[in-house]
UniProtKB/TrEMBL annotation:
Organism ancestry: Bacteria, Pseudomonadati, Pseudomonadota, Gammaproteobacteria, Oceanospirillales
Protein name from the UniProt record: Transposase
Record organism: Aliikangiella marina
Top-rank taxon: Bacteria
Amino acid sequence: MAIKRSDLIDSENAGYYHLISRCVRRAFLCGVDDETGVSYEHRRAW
């Protein structure tokens, strides 16, 4: 069952959440994992 974003994230810290999630998406989830060598480049189209 999904949880509403308003229940999951404190509205006072929403800016920090946005910044962190954006950094994670651009840095690791859409690149190549240095430890395993697995490429996640296909996720860039998401």
